[in-house]
Amino acid sequence: MNNTPAQYKEEFEWLKEVDSLALANAQLHLNDAYKNFWSNKKNGFPKFKSKKRNKNSYSTNNQKGSVRIEGNKIKLPKIGLVKLEMHRQIEGKIKTVTISKAPSGKYYISILVEYENQILPIVPRKFLGLDYAMNGLYVSSDGECANYPKYFRLAQKKLARIQRKFSRSKKLSKNHEKLRIRLSRIHEKIANRRRDFLHKLSAKLVSEYDLIAIEDLNMQAMSKKKHGRRFSFGKSILDNGWGMFTQILEYKSHWMGKNLVRVDRFYPSSQLCSCCGYQNSETKDLSVREWKCPECGSQHDRDINAAINIRNEGMRIFA
Ligand SMILES: [Zn+2]
Which among 79, 38, 83, 44 has a CA at the least distance from the CA of 58? Predict the structure, then answer.
């Protein structure tokens, strides 16, 4: 299809209310959706956006200063100056901005910038291994736990109470809408707190260590209970944010010239003795929390031993 957004402007007056680059971006997204569909039919035919189902957002580009920061405001095409709550200074040239409205009614803007960044690779001297832990995110080769707070679980009682009120309230009533916003705010707060925690924790680890090794886990398969024998708490895994955490670790490491190494998920990290390398298949049983190596006599904490093995395997792969 070679249709342009401009040719619809006569028929749909409201298209004139938004800037042309926002429309161009919508068209690019549609093209991508078609390409995805034709490359693999499993991706499904493009669907119309829904006010209810979809996130309300649009993207526009900076053209010769059409998007710029002025004091504590941002200038947007066709909208003008909008007051901002900026959580960091913008460095570099603004390329694209995406404005979105969260279900709570709050507006967010994410700003993509381009700048020169020379990444000098660091010769790793400090190494860390992380063993995924369903309760608490991870145990490290230095014997530390992430102490991950279970935000969702903590907020669940409150959520359930408001959810009940919400379902009982009359649809389209003022109260119904009020409760919907309250629910959205709680969800938003949980997500924000989780992200904040993961960002701070990953920044700390990346500044302290030069190479971090992790298990390359397939979280989706795990939460689907396919591997029910080993992992069987779908909700706990999803709450736990391991996927998001490792993604953040990866790009933060990269920015600083450091390394994140993913160790194959079939590497028997919890079975090997981290002192002599003896493989103890008895530790396949998850209830074994501590064990003594029958070969060299070392006493092991299950998780710390696994984290040390992951660290060593990461060092080996890197070398
Ligand atoms: Zn041993």
Answer: 79
Nearest to 241 by CA among 197, 307, 211: 197
If you search the block for the tokens 């119309």, which residue do you land on? 48
Tell me whether residue 210 is one of the annotated catalytic residues. Answer: no
Number of other residues whose CB lies within 10 A of the CB of residue 245: 25
272 Cα: distance to centroid of ligand 1 (angstroms): 8
> Annotated catalytic, 114?
no
**pTM of the predicted structure, to 2 decimals:** 0.79
pLDDT digits (tens, 9 = 90+) for 135-172: 789 999 999 999 888 777 778 888 899 999 999 999 88
Angle, helix 151-168 to helix 174-208, in steps of 10 degrees: 170
What is the per-residue pLDDT across 250-294, written as a single tens digit (0 to 9) for each? 999 999 999 999 999 899 999 999 999 999 999 998 889 999 999
Alpha-carbon gap, residue 217 to 134, rounded angstroms: 12
